[in-house]
Design a protein that fits this description.
By secondary structure, the protein is of the alpha/beta class. It has helices spanning 47-54, 72-78, 98-103, 118-130, 146-160, 176-191, 206-209, 226-229, 232-239, 243-248, and strands at residues 9-18, 21-31, 36-40, 62-67, 70-71, 81-84, 164-168, 195-199, 212-217, 219-224. The strands form two sheets. A six-stranded mixed sheet has the order 6-7-8-3-9-10, with helices on both faces. Strands 2-1-4-5 form a four-stranded antiparallel sheet. β1 and β2 form a beta hairpin.
Amino acid sequence: MSAAPAPAIEVSGVTVRYGDVLALDGATLDVAPGRICALLGTNGSGKSTLFKTILGLVAAERGRVRIHGGPTEAARRTGTIGYVPQSEQVDWAFPVRVADVVMMGRYGHMGIGRSPRRADRDAVARALERTGLSALAGRQIGALSGGQRKRAFVARGIAQGADVFLLDEPFAGVDKRSEATIVEVLRAMRDDGHTLLVSTHDLATVPDFCDDAVLLQRRVVAQGTPGEVLTPDRLMEAFGVAPAEARAGEGA
């Protein structure tokens, strides 16, 4: 019998403090390759800190993070890990096209002059096609809807060649049609073997598109399939409210 593949994301006993504030308390979780895993928790539960720790932007007091068995620094250096933040620090009035934003994902593959080659242009074209933005490639980024902007930054990660993606609230501020389109994109990425850790406050949609789920409250309260994780007792432990209230709340 062949051994199970190493986790794409492995977080082992990670503790993080900001001064006297305990942000993560021995958090342990793993995400298998080719899976979509939801990251759920209230405000202050440590979701953003966990993302930053996985990305190597915050140092853990204890514990470690591995991406495909190696250190985060190596994953960042090789472009293996991609990040789609909840809100981009972008001047939406700046005259930059959608294709230019996606091309930013190729910078790590270019030389000092940052001059795109055919491989870079082809990667951008494929990413735009996958996210349904080919027809909008020449449009100014600020002219897009909220959902289209989210897809543009997902396309940037695809063009980068990332295998592991962290997405922070990809459905925040988008309408239902855009949400459905983004879910379709994420499923297609999963089906192509990518691994996705998705922070979301919309508990009701998690069983529809996620293979796994993690409940976080500074420590991992539960991890498993959505059916195993989203139980009344565990939601009460993580959110401190009845399940119906948790599903209705924002909890981001």
